[in-house]
Amino acid sequence: MMTWSIASARRASILSFALTAALSAAAADGGTRETCPKPAPNATPASAEAQALLTAVDIVFVTATSRKAGLAEQAPDEEWADWKLDDINRLVAERAPKVLRSNSLGGEVIVLPAPNLGDPPDFSTLDPSRPALVFAPTQFSKWKRNLLNNMSGSLVYSVRLINVGADAAQMKCRVEVWGAFGFDPVWGRLKTNRVDREWVDTRLADGLTMMAKLGGVKLSSDKAIRPTE
Amino acid sequence: MYRRLFLLIVIAAALTACVHAPTERLTPTSNAIRAVRVFAWGSDDPVVASPAHESFVATLQRSGLETTQIVTLQRPFEDLKALERSWSEAPAGNAASHALVLTRQYQQTGYVRYEAVLWDASSRKLVWKGTLASAATFDALRLRVMPKDAAKRAERLAADVLRGLDRDGLFPLHGKVPRDAQGEEISPTLLPLQLL
């Protein structure tokens, strides 16, 4: 009896650890952050009062670059290729229409080139009459937690709606989605986070979820659905 | 027992080891620095804007490195040709021999990283580079650098530039230490090893 209970307790703890680890791992490759005040319960978002929720929105992704400002010759980033950051544009072009479709949203996908260092992205090529959800990279960081760990990194995108009409409420807060790379804080050396379909789907879905929460985009549920295809 | 303790101490020391942010000479030069013109870019970084950048220049001058002009750039220099263009726009009588270009690069775990380069006007070449770091206070989202300690951070960056130039034989400090506006010694910035 005692043997059985110890064994089952051990099994239960292993199972719960594995479950916790699996859940944490799913969230370990990125997240969201915002400076927007939390709305009161059951309150209609302020911007939703001012504008109809969008059922069609273009997704505009600005190309991320590893080049840092500076005059001295820079060695190529050692992790950029390993973490497959150059795959982002290709995967966005492939996945974003599916993410929009999964959430019953219309819209196209536009990938813009990286702007010159210190300049904002150039939106002059966009149609000003089409609402667009812009993902613009703001920060690429790398770090090691300590000498025993492999390199970790993150790429932060600011997310905002543009071309939503002159009468629409302007966003007074900052919304960001970020994706992590390299050393996984949960799985350690067993998992290396890299850009893949799931990474791109999560960033796009997180951006749509945040915009729906702020009353900009219409979704059928609280969270944007990631495509199964 | 002692072997384990020794191993533990070695691991602890390795994990907490700190070093100077690296500096290096890029090109051999025998041209002494007469005076510098400082060009700085940092997007919205308060260290490279007025009034903090004046603390940067004042710290250089207290150690004898004369500064004839400070220019806050609207965007970073794309290449050396952009620096040469800005150099040629100097007011008449500017006697600087070198340009010191301070560029904010990225944020890294509580630090802001900068590139400082020294450019020799007579050879038109970069002669020195420092990859500097400055411990900063960030806002709650760790997106923006708070301006409250910008002047102190600017003084410390200038002191790190001076120490790097001294270490690499370009501007001897003759054993003197860089000092802040109150006359206190500015200690060197030490970076955790894993951030290099």
What distinguishing features does this structure have?
heterodimer, A: 229 residues, alpha/beta, 7-stranded mixed beta sheet, globular, B: 196 residues, Rossmann fold, 6-stranded mixed beta sheet, two-stranded antiparallel sheet, 4 helices
Shape of chain B: globular
Question: Which CATH architecture of chain B would you pick?
Answer: 3-Layer(aba) Sandwich
Oligomer kind: heterodimer
DSSP strand (E) fraction of chain B?
Answer: 25-35%
Structural class of chain A: alpha/beta
User: Which chains have the largest interface?
Assistant: A-B, 24 and 31 residues
What share of residues are in beta strands of chain A?
A: 15-25%
Average pLDDT number of chain B:
88
Described by strand count, sense and barrel closure, the largest sheet of chain B is: 6 strands, mixed
Question: Which ranges of chain B are low-confidence, i.e. pLDDT below 50, for 5 or more consecutive residues?
Answer: none
Quick synopsis:
The complex is a heterodimer of chains A (229) and B (196). Helices cover 30% and strands 23% of the residues of chain A.
Report what the structure shows.
The complex is a heterodimer of chains A (229) and B (196). By secondary structure, chain A is an alpha/beta fold. Chain A has one domain (30-213). Chain A contains five helices and seven strands. Residues 16-27 of chain A have low confidence and may be disordered. With 196 residues, chain B is of the alpha/beta class. Chain B has one domain (27-195): Rossmann fold, CATH 3.40.50. Chain B has helices spanning 2-16, 52-62, 80-88, 150-167, and strands at residues 18-20, 23-25, 36-41, 67-72, 98-108, 111-120, 125-135, 190-192. In chain B, helix 2 (52-62) packs parallel to helix 4. The two termini of chain B are 33 Å apart. The A-B interface holds A 33, 35, 68-72, 116-119, 138-148, 174, 176 and B 14-15, 26, 41, 43, 74-80, 83, 101, 103-109, 115, 117, 119, 126, 129, 141, 143, 193-195.
